[in-house]
Write a structure and sequence with these properties.
single chain, 364 residues, Dbl Homology Domain, Chain A, PH-domain like, 11 helices, 49% helix, flat
Length: 364
Amino acid sequence: PAAPLEKRDYCIKELIETEKNYIEALNMITRDFMRPLKDVLTPEENEVIFKHIKELADTHAGFHADLHKACLAPQQQQMRISDCFLRWKDKFIVYGDYCSNLPRAQEQIDELCSKKQLVNQCVLNCQQKANDGKFKLRDLLSVPMQRVLKYHLLLKELMKNTAETHEDYHGLEKALKSMLDLAHYINEVKRDNETLQIIADIQASITDVDLPQNMELKDYGRLLKDGELKIKSHDDNNKIKNRYIFIFDRMMLMCKSTKGEQYIYKSSLALCDYRLENAPVNSRMATRYYWFLVHIEKKTAYTMYAKTEEMKKKWIEAIEKAMDNINPSIAKDTDHQFAMHTFKVPTYCSDCNKLLPGIFYQGY
């Protein structure tokens, strides 16, 4: 009789069987939805809804084949389970873009189905034919995101049931770190895409915004904080003005609020040209919760007033974070000059060999 399966064997079996099911789901999306809907969707709509699906189906067919090879008898083995994950990680990077595009794909389906009767009927027919209407297309498109974010959990379970003396134990450790790194990267890409949309919306809401040629707000980094402050410019007759402030990594934007989250641009400060000074504790104005932004060449200065001590603390933290992002404190004792940089393609850190998370201003 066959030897009883160990827990480790069950983990491997689950990994391979669920991978097979996943490939079938990808093929079903291609066969039962992508092809039939091609006739009723524009090329642009098709690209948004089914972005990367074909590529993922091809990638996972190869990954699944490698997993099978890793499960052959020891004398026939060409690779180990851990090798499969390490070998295919770079192909899985596309999930960052896939998961970021997913909400847009689902919105596109909902919008087309509500506005175009022909598309709606075709989608319903496809769903009925594919799985008796059990799953909607918009739900099936979530399956790839669920799958890729589950790999580190499957590997964790496999490691738990693998003896430290096993020949693949240390390989599995590397594979687990690799899939955790991938999951972190995907989540950060998703978050960055949401951030870029917020920044684009902010730029559209500001009239007369004065940026250098070919520059957009996103070129000044991530939005760290926004809200209302009272501000006094020391070269402006000492008048205190209400301003709506946006703090980005490289810049502070000062605007005047108008109705309905619309703003009029007033001025901007390059944060690398300023230093932050807290108000003296014994100041008679201490109850006003204020601080200073002073030009490093003392050309000008601003006094900024928050409503509460807690709000003041949060504003100062955001400004300090922005200043540290521009000039990292850990670099001050070196002769290196750091400049925040956007890497256009997925890039690994040369020091820790992890993916630089996100899609803009990921490193220096």
